[in-house]
Design brief:
- By secondary structure, this protein is an all-alpha fold.
- It has one domain.
- Helices cover 84% and strands 0% of the residues.
- It contains 2 helices and no strands.
- It is elongated, with a radius of gyration of 16 Å.
- It starts with a helix and ends with a helix.
């Protein structure tokens, strides 16, 4: 139904906002005076956060699909 789609979209937008917030917080890991050393750690942290949110997004999509069937 239309309400189910709207709920799913709101949930996905919420995840996107939280992802953006969490990635912004990781900027503190980048040290301008030590870019060579700090950027790889930052990349690893960003990948981990993105992976977590990807998993949450998959769960939301699966729940939506199950509910719509």
């Amino acid at each position: 139904d239309g309400e189910g789609v709207a709920r799913w979209r709101r949930a996905q937008r919420g995840l996107t906002r939280l992802l953006s917030r969490d990635v912004r917080r990781l900027r503190r890991l980048i040290l301008p005076q030590r870019l060579q050393e700090s950027v790889p750690d930052w990349l690893e942290a960003v990948r981990a956060v993105v992976d977590d949110y990807a998993d949450a997004s998959v769960e939301l999509a699966a729940d939506f699909y199950d509910a719509e069937r």
